Amino acid sequence: MDFCGISDEPTAIEEKHCISPAVENTETWCVAAREPDINNIESLKKDELACEYLNRLNGFSGKRYGKKYLKDQKKRAEYCRGHINNIKKIEESCTHYLKTITQIIDIVPK
User: Which letter, b or e, does each residue of 42-58 get, where b requires 16 or more Cβ atoms within 10 Å of its Cβ?
Assistant: First the structure.
């Protein structure tokens, strides 16, 4: 398995990553990280969410990407690194994300 360049547990631990299944489309989190101005963002339909994410990806990069870039790991990683300081926006807009993170924190050895 390879997820954003992390293919084994030692790398994940070294990089301080935790791999977890997502309840919803992770594009929801990407949209929330840039401009969380959508009420009830988690209720968007798949196509609506894809459009919102691409709009934000294009705004961030200054380029025009099409649907084939929705799951592009390199573009997603660049976008996430560029919005890493906006984690509070995601937590405030995405209750499933916050619940998942809270559950992970509760089980991770301290």
Answer: bebeeeebbbbbbebbe
Average pLDDT, consecutive stretches of 10 residues, N- to C-terminus, the chain (110 residues): 51 59 79 81 90 93 90 89 88 87 78
Instruction: Please state, in angstroms and rounded to a whole number, the distance separating the CA atoms of residues 101 and 82.
Output: 20
Phi, psi of 3 (to 5 degrees): -130, 110
What are the Cα distances from residue 50, in Å, to 55, 65, 85?
A: 9, 12, 22
Helix (H, G, I), strand (E, B) or coil at 73: helix
Tokens at 33, concatenated:
């990280």
Residues in the chain: 110
- What residues does each domain of the chain span? 22-107
What gap in Å lies between CA 53 and CA 32, rounded to an integer? 9
Task: Report the alpha-carbon angle 5-32-53, nearest 5.
Answer: 65
Q: What pTM was estimated for this model as a whole?
A: 0.74
